[in-house]
């Protein structure tokens, strides 16, 4: 079975590599996605990727995933902490979503400890740098393979 996973990255993540490297690491988003695509290929997982700094474009990407993705790795950036629109979109699409962060949001400023998205996600992975994305892929594949067959 080839699983189709969509990786969605939110605001400011296009600047990875140059943005606060002491917090988010030295890898660029392109490098992370290239690595993840190779990691997925070894496991029979096809990776598609979308990044936007615009909340509505992220909502649209989640809607488009209906019928085209089995699961979503989602780093919503700062929107994690306050976007009810993204929370409603995740709840609406009925696709498992893993909220994913490079940094350990619980070890940083107080406002980063709250996620309005986590309650409607399958789970949350945070604090492992670029490896957080690989862990999210593993979590989704494990969940998809444990699901009872339809029909
Ligand atoms: C982040 C954590 C968020 O709090 C922050 O706003 C980001 C990146 C992370 O991957 O660690 O933009 O989602």
In short:
The chain is α/β, with parallel strands linked by helices. Helices cover 36% and strands 19% of the residues.
Describe the structure.
The model has no long low-confidence stretch (mean pLDDT 96). The chain has a single domain (3-146), classed as Rossmann fold (3-Layer(aba) Sandwich), CATH 3.40.50.9100. A five-stranded parallel β-sheet has the order 2-1-3-4-5, sandwiched between helices. Helices cover 36% and strands 19% of the residues. It has helices at residues 21-24, 29-42, 55-64, 84-93, 131-146; strands at residues 3-9, 45-51, 71-75, 97-101, 123-126. Helix 3 runs parallel beside helix 4. Strand 3 (71-75), helix 4 (84-93) and strand 4 form a beta-alpha-beta unit. By secondary structure, the protein is an alpha/beta fold. The structure holds 1,3,4-trihydroxy-5-OXO-cyclohexanecarboxylic acid. 1,3,4-trihydroxy-5-OXO-cyclohexanecarboxylic acid binds at residues 12, 75, 77-78, 80, 101-103, 105, 112.
Q: How is this fold's topology laid out?
A:
Layout: E1 3-9, H1 21-24, H2 29-42, E2 45-51, H3 55-64, E3 71-75, H4 84-93, E4 97-101, E5 123-126, H5 131-146
Parallel strand pairs: 1-2, 1-3, 3-4, 4-5
Helix pairs in contact: 3-4
Bound molecules: 1,3,4-trihydroxy-5-OXO-cyclohexanecarboxylic acid.
């Amino acid at each position: 079975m080839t699983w189709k996973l969509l990786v969605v990255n939110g605001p400011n993540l296009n600047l990875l590599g140059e943005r606060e490297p002491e917090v988010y690491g030295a890898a660029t988003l392109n490098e992370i996605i290239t690595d993840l695509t190779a990691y997925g290929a070894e496991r029979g997982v096809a990776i598609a990727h979308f990044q936007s700094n615009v909340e509505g474009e992220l909502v649209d990407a989640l809607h488009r995933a209906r019928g085209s993705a089995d699961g979503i790795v989602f780093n919503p950036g700062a929107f994690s902490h306050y976007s009810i629109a993204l929370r409603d979109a995740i709840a609406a699409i009925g696709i498992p979503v893993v909220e994913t962060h490079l940094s350990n949001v619980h070890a940083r400023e107080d406002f980063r400890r709250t996620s309005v998205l986590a309650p409607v996600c399958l789970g949350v992975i945070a604090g492992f740098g670029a490896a957080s994305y690989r862990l999210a892929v593993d979590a989704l594949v494990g969940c998809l393979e444990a699901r009872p067959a339809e029909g």
